[in-house]
Amino acid sequence: xxxxxxxxxxxxxxxxxxxxxxxxxxxxxxxxxxxxxxxxxxxxxxxxxxxxxxxxxxxxxxxxxxxxxxxxxxxxxxxxxxxxxxxxxxxxxxxxxxxxxxxxxxxxxxxxxxxxxxxxxxxxxxxxxxxxxxxxxxxxxxxxxxxxxxxxxxxxxxxxxxxxxxxxxxxxxxxxxxxxxxxxxxxxxxxxxxxxxxx
Length: 199
Ligand code: 5GP
Hints:
Rossmann fold, 5-stranded parallel β-sheet, 4-stranded mixed β-sheet, 8 helices, 42% helix, binds guanosine-5'-monophosphate
Protein backbone atom coordinates (compact mmCIF):
# COMPACT_ATOMS: atom_id res chain seq x y z
CA UNK A 1 0.00 0.00 0.00
CA UNK A 2 1.29 3.47 -0.86
CA UNK A 3 1.76 5.73 2.19
CA UNK A 4 -0.38 8.46 0.62
CA UNK A 5 -3.35 6.07 0.38
CA UNK A 6 -3.46 5.51 4.14
CA UNK A 7 -6.28 7.22 6.01
CA UNK A 8 -5.60 8.41 9.58
CA UNK A 9 -7.74 5.51 10.87
CA UNK A 10 -5.80 3.01 8.80
CA UNK A 11 -2.56 4.36 10.23
CA UNK A 12 -3.79 3.85 13.79
CA UNK A 13 -5.98 0.77 13.75
CA UNK A 14 -5.23 -0.13 17.37
CA UNK A 15 -6.64 3.12 18.79
CA UNK A 16 -10.18 1.91 18.11
CA UNK A 17 -9.70 -1.34 20.04
CA UNK A 18 -11.00 -1.55 23.60
CA UNK A 19 -9.06 -2.68 26.64
CA UNK A 20 -9.07 -5.82 28.66
CA UNK A 21 -8.74 -5.51 32.46
CA UNK A 22 -8.17 -8.61 34.57
CA UNK A 23 -9.16 -8.51 38.26
CA UNK A 24 -7.81 -11.31 40.39
CA UNK A 25 -7.69 -11.94 44.12
CA UNK A 26 -8.61 -14.63 46.63
CA UNK A 27 -12.20 -15.76 46.96
CA UNK A 28 -13.87 -13.67 49.68
CA UNK A 29 -11.62 -10.64 49.18
CA UNK A 30 -14.57 -8.60 47.93
CA UNK A 31 -13.82 -8.45 44.18
CA UNK A 32 -17.45 -8.93 43.26
CA UNK A 33 -18.70 -6.13 45.52
CA UNK A 34 -15.99 -3.77 44.30
CA UNK A 35 -16.78 -4.53 40.64
CA UNK A 36 -20.51 -4.05 41.24
CA UNK A 37 -19.86 -0.63 42.81
CA UNK A 38 -17.49 0.28 39.96
CA UNK A 39 -20.02 -0.69 37.28
CA UNK A 40 -22.80 1.26 38.99
CA UNK A 41 -20.87 4.50 38.49
CA UNK A 42 -19.21 3.53 35.19
CA UNK A 43 -21.83 1.99 32.90
CA UNK A 44 -19.34 2.28 30.02
CA UNK A 45 -17.38 -0.61 31.55
CA UNK A 46 -18.40 -4.17 30.66
CA UNK A 47 -18.08 -7.15 32.96
CA UNK A 48 -17.62 -10.48 31.22
CA UNK A 49 -20.07 -13.13 32.42
CA UNK A 50 -18.29 -16.42 32.95
CA UNK A 51 -19.53 -19.95 32.48
CA UNK A 52 -19.27 -22.27 35.48
CA UNK A 53 -20.21 -25.76 36.56
CA UNK A 54 -20.70 -24.52 40.14
CA UNK A 55 -24.25 -24.67 41.50
CA UNK A 56 -25.96 -21.26 41.72
CA UNK A 57 -25.97 -19.71 45.18
CA UNK A 58 -29.29 -18.38 46.48
CA UNK A 59 -30.16 -15.29 44.46
CA UNK A 60 -27.79 -16.02 41.58
CA UNK A 61 -29.45 -16.01 38.17
CA UNK A 62 -28.32 -17.78 34.98
CA UNK A 63 -26.95 -15.15 32.60
CA UNK A 64 -26.43 -12.53 35.31
CA UNK A 65 -23.70 -13.66 37.72
CA UNK A 66 -22.73 -16.69 35.59
CA UNK A 67 -23.89 -18.98 32.86
CA UNK A 68 -24.51 -22.09 34.94
CA UNK A 69 -23.80 -25.15 32.79
CA UNK A 70 -23.18 -28.83 33.38
CA UNK A 71 -19.73 -30.37 32.99
CA UNK A 72 -20.51 -31.91 29.58
CA UNK A 73 -21.58 -28.53 28.22
CA UNK A 74 -18.47 -26.88 29.68
CA UNK A 75 -16.22 -29.54 28.16
CA UNK A 76 -17.90 -29.00 24.81
CA UNK A 77 -17.16 -25.26 25.15
CA UNK A 78 -13.49 -26.09 25.76
CA UNK A 79 -13.35 -28.52 22.82
CA UNK A 80 -14.90 -26.02 20.43
CA UNK A 81 -12.59 -23.21 21.63
CA UNK A 82 -15.44 -21.04 22.88
CA UNK A 83 -13.47 -20.05 25.98
CA UNK A 84 -10.76 -17.40 26.15
CA UNK A 85 -9.43 -19.10 29.26
CA UNK A 86 -10.71 -21.57 31.81
CA UNK A 87 -9.61 -23.15 35.09
CA UNK A 88 -10.70 -25.67 37.69
CA UNK A 89 -11.28 -24.05 41.06
CA UNK A 90 -12.45 -25.77 44.26
CA UNK A 91 -13.85 -28.70 42.25
CA UNK A 92 -15.68 -26.66 39.62
CA UNK A 93 -14.85 -25.34 36.18
CA UNK A 94 -14.92 -21.62 35.38
CA UNK A 95 -14.26 -19.99 32.01
CA UNK A 96 -14.58 -16.78 30.02
CA UNK A 97 -16.77 -17.01 26.90
CA UNK A 98 -14.62 -15.72 24.05
CA UNK A 99 -17.26 -14.30 21.69
CA UNK A 100 -18.69 -11.53 23.87
CA UNK A 101 -15.27 -10.34 25.04
CA UNK A 102 -13.81 -10.22 21.54
CA UNK A 103 -16.86 -8.38 20.18
CA UNK A 104 -16.74 -5.75 22.95
CA UNK A 105 -12.99 -5.20 22.57
CA UNK A 106 -13.43 -4.87 18.81
CA UNK A 107 -16.15 -2.27 19.47
CA UNK A 108 -13.71 -0.21 21.54
CA UNK A 109 -15.16 -1.10 24.97
CA UNK A 110 -13.28 -1.78 28.20
CA UNK A 111 -14.01 -5.30 29.38
CA UNK A 112 -13.35 -6.55 32.91
CA UNK A 113 -12.61 -10.21 33.64
CA UNK A 114 -13.01 -11.19 37.29
CA UNK A 115 -11.06 -14.44 37.30
CA UNK A 116 -8.71 -16.53 39.43
CA UNK A 117 -4.95 -16.87 39.07
CA UNK A 118 -4.65 -19.75 36.57
CA UNK A 119 -6.96 -17.97 34.14
CA UNK A 120 -5.18 -14.65 34.70
CA UNK A 121 -1.90 -16.32 33.73
CA UNK A 122 -3.45 -17.69 30.53
CA UNK A 123 -4.72 -14.22 29.62
CA UNK A 124 -1.24 -12.84 30.24
CA UNK A 125 0.04 -15.17 27.50
CA UNK A 126 -2.80 -14.78 25.03
CA UNK A 127 -3.55 -11.10 25.65
CA UNK A 128 -0.31 -9.49 26.85
CA UNK A 129 -1.78 -5.99 26.57
CA UNK A 130 -4.35 -6.78 29.28
CA UNK A 131 -4.02 -4.63 32.41
CA UNK A 132 -3.90 -6.85 35.48
CA UNK A 133 -5.06 -5.83 38.94
CA UNK A 134 -4.67 -7.94 42.10
CA UNK A 135 -6.96 -7.40 45.11
CA UNK A 136 -5.57 -8.42 48.49
CA UNK A 137 -7.25 -8.90 51.87
CA UNK A 138 -5.75 -7.04 54.85
CA UNK A 139 -4.75 -10.48 56.24
CA UNK A 140 -5.52 -14.19 55.84
CA UNK A 141 -7.45 -14.15 59.15
CA UNK A 142 -9.65 -11.37 57.82
CA UNK A 143 -10.18 -13.31 54.57
CA UNK A 144 -11.32 -16.37 56.55
CA UNK A 145 -13.68 -14.20 58.58
CA UNK A 146 -15.20 -12.75 55.39
CA UNK A 147 -15.63 -16.21 53.82
CA UNK A 148 -17.37 -17.48 56.97
CA UNK A 149 -19.55 -14.35 57.33
CA UNK A 150 -20.65 -14.69 53.72
CA UNK A 151 -22.23 -17.99 54.75
CA UNK A 152 -22.37 -19.34 51.20
CA UNK A 153 -19.87 -22.20 51.48
CA UNK A 154 -19.55 -25.28 53.66
CA UNK A 155 -16.44 -25.65 55.82
CA UNK A 156 -14.48 -27.98 53.45
CA UNK A 157 -15.08 -25.52 50.60
CA UNK A 158 -13.89 -22.63 52.78
CA UNK A 159 -10.74 -24.61 53.57
CA UNK A 160 -10.16 -25.22 49.83
CA UNK A 161 -10.66 -21.52 49.11
CA UNK A 162 -8.23 -20.51 51.87
CA UNK A 163 -5.58 -22.92 50.58
CA UNK A 164 -6.03 -21.52 47.08
CA UNK A 165 -5.81 -17.99 48.52
CA UNK A 166 -2.28 -18.61 49.79
CA UNK A 167 -1.14 -19.65 46.28
CA UNK A 168 -2.84 -16.62 44.78
CA UNK A 169 -1.35 -14.20 47.33
CA UNK A 170 2.13 -15.52 46.57
CA UNK A 171 1.61 -14.49 42.93
CA UNK A 172 0.56 -10.90 43.61
CA UNK A 173 3.77 -9.47 42.09
CA UNK A 174 2.82 -10.85 38.68
CA UNK A 175 0.18 -8.12 38.47
CA UNK A 176 0.47 -4.49 37.31
CA UNK A 177 -1.27 -3.08 40.39
CA UNK A 178 -2.04 -4.44 43.86
CA UNK A 179 -4.90 -3.04 45.92
CA UNK A 180 -5.66 -3.94 49.55
CA UNK A 181 -9.38 -4.17 50.25
CA UNK A 182 -9.31 -3.00 53.86
CA UNK A 183 -11.40 0.17 53.76
CA UNK A 184 -13.97 -0.40 51.00
CA UNK A 185 -14.22 3.20 49.76
CA UNK A 186 -10.45 3.57 49.55
CA UNK A 187 -10.15 0.29 47.65
CA UNK A 188 -12.96 1.37 45.31
CA UNK A 189 -11.23 4.67 44.56
CA UNK A 190 -7.96 2.88 43.87
CA UNK A 191 -9.58 0.30 41.65
CA UNK A 192 -11.44 3.01 39.75
CA UNK A 193 -8.20 4.87 39.15
CA UNK A 194 -6.39 1.69 38.07
CA UNK A 195 -9.14 0.55 35.70
CA UNK A 196 -9.72 3.96 34.12
CA UNK A 197 -6.09 5.09 33.89
CA UNK A 198 -4.26 1.80 33.62
CA UNK A 199 -2.94 0.04 30.55
P1 5GP B 1 -17.05 -18.12 42.99
O1 5GP B 1 -17.38 -19.57 43.06
O2 5GP B 1 -16.73 -17.54 44.36
O3 5GP B 1 -18.07 -17.32 42.24
O4 5GP B 1 -15.69 -17.98 42.14
C1 5GP B 1 -14.56 -18.71 42.50
C2 5GP B 1 -13.36 -18.14 41.79
O5 5GP B 1 -13.49 -18.34 40.38
C3 5GP B 1 -13.16 -16.64 42.01
O6 5GP B 1 -11.80 -16.39 42.32
C4 5GP B 1 -13.53 -16.05 40.67
O7 5GP B 1 -12.82 -14.86 40.41
C5 5GP B 1 -13.10 -17.16 39.73
N1 5GP B 1 -13.72 -17.09 38.41
C6 5GP B 1 -14.96 -16.65 38.10
N2 5GP B 1 -15.15 -16.72 36.78
C7 5GP B 1 -14.00 -17.19 36.23
C8 5GP B 1 -13.58 -17.46 34.89
O8 5GP B 1 -14.29 -17.27 33.92
N3 5GP B 1 -12.33 -17.95 34.75
C9 5GP B 1 -11.50 -18.17 35.80
N4 5GP B 1 -10.27 -18.63 35.53
N5 5GP B 1 -11.86 -17.91 37.06
C10 5GP B 1 -13.10 -17.44 37.27
